[in-house]
Amino acid sequence: MLEKLEKLFNEFTSALEKLSKEAEILNLKSEYLGKKGAISQILAGLRDCTPEEKKQLGPAANEVKNKIQELINSKLQKLEIDAINEKLASEREDLSLTDSVMASNNHHGGIHPVTLIQTEIEDIFLSMGFDILDGPHIEDEFHNFEALNIPADHPARDMQDTFWFHDPHAETDEKKFLLRTHTSTIQVRGMTSRKPPFRFIAPGKVFRCERTDASHEMVFHQLEGMMVGKDISVANLIYFMKSLLSEIFKKEVEVRLRPGFFPFVEPGFELDIKCLICSGKGCSVCKQVGWVELLPCGMVHPNVLKAGGIDPDEFNGFAFGLGLDRLVMMRYHIDDIRHLHGADLRFSEQFKTF
Ligand code: DAH
After folding, report:
1. What percent of the chain has pLDDT over 90?
2. Per-residue confidence at 105, pLDDT binned at 50, 70, 90?
3. How far apart are CA 139 and CA 141, in angstroms?
4. Ligand 1 geometric centre to CA of 84 (Å)
5. Does the C-beta of 189 come closer than 6 Å to ligand 1?
6. Whose CA is nearest to atom 4 of ligand 1?
7. Which atom of ligand 1 approaches the CA of 265 most closely?
8. What per-residue confidence (pLDDT) applies to 354?
C-alpha cells in the first residue's frame, strides 16, 4: 500500500509539471484530492486495514495529501504571478514615445522675446518688494493725459500721436477714448487704488500713430514703475534703476542722469547707461557718445500725486517708464523692431521653447 502511495505521488508530480492552465490544475487536484479522488480512496480503504497497517498508512496518506495540496497551491500562485508580470510587460507605456513623435512631427512654440525680458524684470522687481499691476489698453483722456499733468491744451499731447475712438452716436465730435499711448496711465490707477507707501510696476502694450521703420512701431511695449512714500529721493531712484540694470545685463553698469522733460515728473531725467559694447570709448551702437539712452524717469509731479488722491505735502515718489522693445533688441541683437510683431515663425522659434 505504501508503494502504491509513493507511485501515486510520483505520477501526480510529473502530471503537475506538464500543466500550465489553472483549470487543468484544478482538475488534477480533484482527481487526487476530490471526494472520489485517488488519495481519498486510499484513506477510505483504511477501514479494511488492520490496526497495524492503519498506523503506518494513515499518517503516510495524510502526508502525501498535504504535500499535493501544497504543490497545487504554489503552482497556482506561480501562475497568478506569471499572469500579472505578463500583463505588466504587455501593457507597458513607453513614455519617451510622445516626446520623440512630437519632436519629429510637431512644432514647439517659442516664448516671445518681449515676454522673456518682461518676466525676467518682473522677477527682479518682485524680489525688491514691488507689486505688478495691469491696466486697460483702451483708456479715457483723464488717465492718459489729464491726471498726468497734461491738460487739453498742453503741447505735450502732440508728442504722442494718438489713436482716438470716435463714437458714431455722439452728437458732438468730442474725443473721449483712445488706445493708451504709454503705461503711465497705470500710475493713476495704482495711486487711486492704494494708500502710500507703495511700489509697483506695470508692463504692457502701448499704441501710437507712428510711421514705422527699423526703430519705430505703432504697437510697442513699456514697463512703468512707481514708488511713493515719505522722503523719497533721487538717490532712491538711482539705486533701484542701477540694481535693475545690473541684474538685466548681469554686470555692474554705470549710469548717468541728464535733465529730461515729461509733464508728470519734476525734475525729470533721461537715465543713460555706459555703453556695454565699447565700455564708454565710443562705437556705432552708442553713436560714438559712450552712453546709451535707456530710461526716462523722475520725481513724481505734485499735480500727479493730487490727481491720484495723495497729499504731495506728506508724500513724494519717483516714476520711470522703461522701453521693453529697445532692451530686447539690445539683449538679442535684433536690428529691426518690426520683427517683434512680424509673426514670422523663423524669428520666434529662435527663442526659448516651452
Ligand atoms: N510715459 C513716458 C513716455 O511714454 C515715459 C516716462 C517718462 C514714464 C518719465 C515715466 C517717467 O514714468 O517718469 O514717453
Report:
1. 51
2. low
3. 7
4. 69
5. no
6. 182
7. 13
8. 54
Q: Which atom of ligand 1 is the closest one to the Cα of 318?
A: 13
pTM: 0.68
For 55, the grid coordinates are: 498506523
Query: Best mutation site among 149, 320, 324, 327 for ligand 1, i.e. most ligand atoms within 8 A of its Cβ?
Result: 320
Q: Is the CB of 320 under 6 A from ligand 1?
A: yes
pLDDT reported for residue 285: 72
Q: Is 224 in the pocket of ligand 1 (CB under 6 A)?
A: yes
pLDDT tens string 111-144: 899 999 999 999 999 999 999 999 999 999 999 9
Residue 90: pLDDT band (50, 70, 90) is confident
Question: What digits encode the pLDDT tens for the residues 295-304?
Answer: 999 999 999 9
Span from the CA of 298 to the centroid of ligand 1 (angstroms) = 9
**Ligand 1 centroid vs 43 CA: distance in angstroms?**
105
Domains and CATH numbers, the chain: 2-90 (no CATH), 113-351 (3.30.930.10)
| Range with lowest mean pLDDT among 11-25, 162-176, 280-294 | 162-176
Q: Where are the alpha helices (DSSP H) in the chain?
A: 2-18, 22-33, 38-45, 51-90, 96-105, 113-127, 141-144, 185-192, 234-249, 302-307, 324-332, 345-348
**In this structure, which residue's CA is closest to atom 7 in ligand 1?**
296
